[in-house]
Amino acid sequence: MTLAGRFDLTGRTAIVTGAAGLLGRHHCRALAEAGAWVVAADQDLDTCAAVADELGGTVTAVAADVTDPRSVQTLLEQALGRTGRADVLVNNAAINDMFESPAAALEQSRFENYPLELWRRSLEVNLTGVFLCSRIIGAEMARAGRGSIINIGSTYGVVAPDQSLYRDPEGRQRFYKSPVYPATKGAVLAFTRFLAAYWGHAGVRVNVLSPGGVENGQDDFFVREYARRTPLNRMAAPSDFMGALVFLASDASAYVTGANLLVDGGFTVW
């Protein structure tokens, strides 16, 4: 097989959760451009359908709740019903705290005040959702003797949040990065290693793709400070992860499992 052929996903089926989000739609695009049939899953079916329409006939939209076992089972059945296969799972669905009131964000995001309900909700989506999708869809891969599970992590699963990034030029803390996002992303790393060891004999590879911060309309001071502490001197674009995703999904990474591929512009080197 040629090197280019190792990256080819023609004939394979990829399931992407959280497909209607900023990174999710780029994950779908990357896999479709590599030749895969893509099942784009999200709670927001209308937005997900718009993504599928934009990307063309090899992408189909499915409504799914990653925290509901029956919904995930239905997602798998719909994927199998279309192609008879489930080759790639991208566990992308996640909650990254957004506070409804900017005025209350500072106090609410303090660790001492962080709401228990927000902690529990993020655990459900960011961790239990990965567990359920991996258990249900990954079990099908193990039965087939092949598959690649890609869990989307974060630099904040590796290093602690730099809270000074959320301080404006006047020195005022706008808010704090919450405790639950790094806690869940760190847990995803450990869970990935567990699965890699557990299913290695069955031909199922399990890896983490950990993105750096993505520029997406943040305050100018935040973008500037984030770029300043990143060796490549910029935040990521949503398209910066497409090559790494295809690498982990394809035979180009056939001997890679249990790994954490950091695509962060060097953010975690110091």
Automatic annotation (TrEMBL):
Cited PANTHER family: 3-OXOACYL-[ACYL-CARRIER-PROTEIN] REDUCTASE, SHORT-CHAIN DEHYDROGENASES/REDUCTASES FAMILY MEMBER
Database matches in InterPro entries: NAD(P)-bd_dom_sf (IPR036291), Sc_DH/Rdtase_CS (IPR020904), SDR_fam (IPR002347)
Record's keyword terms, sorted: Oxidoreductase
UniProt protein name: Short-chain dehydrogenase/reductase SDR
Similarity comment: Belongs to the short-chain dehydrogenases/reductases (SDR) family.
Signal peptide (residue range): none
Organism: Methylocaldum marinum
Domain of life per record: Bacteria
One MF term in the entry's GO annotations: oxidoreductase activity, acting on the CH-OH group of donors, NAD or NADP as acceptor
SUPFAM superfamilies: NAD(P)-binding Rossmann-fold domains
